[in-house]
Write a structure and sequence with these properties.
three-stranded parallel sheet; 3 strands; 1 helix; alpha/beta; 83 residues; 18% helix
Amino acid sequence: MTPTQEKNIAWYLPRPKRDRYKGGMPLWCEELILRLGRQLLCNEDARILNLFCGMNKYGLRVDILDGVKPDICCDAHELTKHL
């Protein structure tokens, strides 16, 4: 892969955080994944798309539940209409 090509990395963590919100993860885990992803991409400015993660702290947060205050509130199937 050449330096000009982009990489996409995806992780899935099935365990909920203490508030039991499905899809949520502890903040330490979110920070660790962000750091690892940026190292793997060799890009400290890499942006993150957090699907189903309205309560996460980092990245563009997308969730179907308005109550968790995501950046974009929509069904993931309709995401392209909001980007």
